[in-house]
Design brief:
19 helices
């Protein structure tokens, strides 16, 4: 009996079949199918190998924050806000999305020297529209504007970014861009080792005097402008010497080789398209933007901002930031600056730690660190997304594998309720249907506060760049702690283990105690998807 061999599914696996049992027709069909598959595979490899890339060695003009802005309105108001103490920094929390949007718009409207904006994503929705329109108005007044956006999840059309960049007072750069020629997916896959590494930082600086640092990007869901749901998020309005550090961080990224000028990515003749884009944004602003702008700058908090009746929290603080070079080097402990410094801060805790994170995958090392903290008697309260509120199901799939370890270690584990948006929506605004936690914050002993872009997952730790503020303020810490103690039981389920070592979810909803034995507020299909997506590689989440 004659036998033949063929390659299958791996470099060292062979299968045999009996040629005597196959007709010539079947052998021919088999050969054709195999040849077709090999041709398609070869074509795919050729496409990936030939995909376009962005040259990173082109000349570009370096620029830095304007150092002397002491004559600006912002400088004078900051000096008054801080009682003319140039050596201290002042902070104010922006917990409501509409206030956070209003603060950005107000600062743009009074800018005199410069605006630097750095975001992981920007969308062409009402938030992006109003933001861009106000940047244009500032540039028309003579303000220098620098806009730095990561590429992957920014969905604003290139022509609209080119339109902004065409203004003589605006420069737009795209961080770590995917090539515009060819097929986007193939360009991404062909350069996966770099394209997979992203700038996740978020910073907004006006006149080198005031900065906003936190977790919000430029899209409606972050600012209570979305009609179907809300991202609970958090920013910190910052003034004083700390702003110079935020500006220095921006300059480092702005002048890095991965920051590509928009004109390089869209070099073809564009004058007619630019004129159309500006006309469109002007018309849309008139239709929708004016009312959004008026509402955002007239919240109770913004009125107090204009009246200068907000009392700042005076505190020592430091900016913690990854270096953009992290994206060009192998993953290493040395490059994990933000995580390393936060680990030291957590290890120094004496009483309790409150952690707010949308995505939590501690891995084995994280569980061991938590056990060490608990062995010292440190209370740990963790609020994260439930399956129903998580907008990245694969992340929940892997996080769920660690829940029992966390509970057995004594962590007080809470998961956000999908129907809690009606509780978090400010009085006077229409209640929303769906809540998603997006806050990235840590409270240590009620005295130290971290706020920034860092998620506690492998992607933030190993793959992307992150930043945040570490603020030492018992007064601010006490306020945020009291808010957390009051709010968490209202918007989240507390997880516990029952007598059979099964997870149960406990909440008080409309005055009634509720106990769930399966992932709350989810369908069987959603639970199946979460189980199935455990196949996703944990180190990429």
């Amino acid at each position: 009996m004659k036998k033949a061999k063929r390659f299958e599914e791996g470099p060292n696996r062979f299968y045999t079949f009996n040629l005597d049992r196959l007709s010539p027709l079947k052998i021919g069909k088999f050969a054709m199918k195999r040849c077709l598959k090999l041709c398609v595979f070869a074509m795919l490899l050729a496409l990936i190998a030939g995909c376009a890339s962005v040259p990173l060695d082109f000349p570009k003009e370096e620029s830095v924050a304007i150092a002397d802005t002491s004559n600006t309105r912002q400088a004078k108001e900051v000096a008054e806000w801080l009682d003319n103490r140039p050596d201290v920094s002042g902070f104010y929390p922006l917990s409501q999305g509409f206030d956070a949007f209003g603060a950005r718009l107000v600062l743009i409207s009074v800018a005199e020297a410069s605006i630097d904006a750095q975001y992981f994503l920007m969308k062409p929705d009402n938030a992006g529209l109003v933001f861009a329109a106000k940047l244009l108005e500032a540039a028309d007044r003579g303000v220098r504007v620098r806009l730095l956006l990561d590429d992957i999840f920014t969905t604003v059309e290139d022509i609209d970014l080119v339109m902004l960049d065409a203004h003589p007072n605006i420069q737009v750069r795209i961080f770590n861009p995917i090539a515009r020629k060819g097929i986007d997916v193939l360009n991404y896959l062909g350069h996966f080792s770099l394209a997979n590494r992203r700038m996740h930082n978020k910073a907004f600086i006006v006149d080198n005097q005031v900065a906003i640092v936190g977790g919000r990007n430029i899209a409606v869901e972050y600012y209570q402008l979305e009609t179907t749901g809300e991202f609970i998020d958090f920013d910190m309005l910052s003034t004083g010497p700390i702003v110079k550090d935020v500006s220095a961080q921006f300059d480092t990224y702005w002048n890095h080789k991965l920051a590509v000028p928009m004109e390089v990515l869209f070099a073809k003749d564009r004058s007619e398209k630019i004129e159309r884009a500006r006309a469109l944004i002007t018309r849309e602003m008139a239709e929708a933007g004016d009312s959004i702008y008026g509402d955002a700058i007239n919240t109770p908090l913004m009125r107090r901002f204009f009246e200068q009746s907000l009392d700042p929290y005076i505190a020592d603080a430091r900016l913690i930031t990854d270096d953009p070079q992290k994206l060009l080097e192998e993953v290493s402990v040395e490059q994990q600056v933000v995580v390393n410094e936060m680990r030291e801060a957590l290890a120094a805790a004496e009483r309790e730690i409150y952690i707010f994170t949308p995505y939590f995958i501690p891995r084995k090392a994280g569980i061991e660190f938590i056990k060490e903290l608990r062995a010292k008697g440190i209370r740990i309260v963790l609020l994260t997304n439930s399956l129903a509120t998580n907008n990245h199901t694969p992340v929940h799939s892997h996080y769920s594998s660690y829940r029992k370890d966390l509970l057995r270690a004594g962590v007080e584990l809470w998961e956000a309720r999908a129907d809690a948006a009606k509780i978090t929506t400010p009085e006077g605004q229409t209640g929303l249907d769906q809540l998603t936690l997006h806050t990235k914050g840590i409270l240590i002993d009620g005295e130290r506060i971290f706020v920034g872009s860092l998620n506690l997952d492998p992607r933030s730790i190993d793959i992307n760049t992150e930043m945040g503020l570490l603020i030492d303020s018992p007064e601010l810490g006490e306020q945020l702690m009291n808010d957390a103690i009051e709010r968490i039981p209202k918007i989240a389920y507390r997880l516990q283990l029952d007598e059979n070592d099964k997870i149960t979810w406990h909440a008080t909803i409309d005055g009634e105690a509720v106990v769930e034995t399966t992932e709350p507020q989810t369908s069987a299909w959603r639970r199946f998807a979460a189980w199935f997506l455990k196949i996703a590689p944990e180190n990429q989440l």
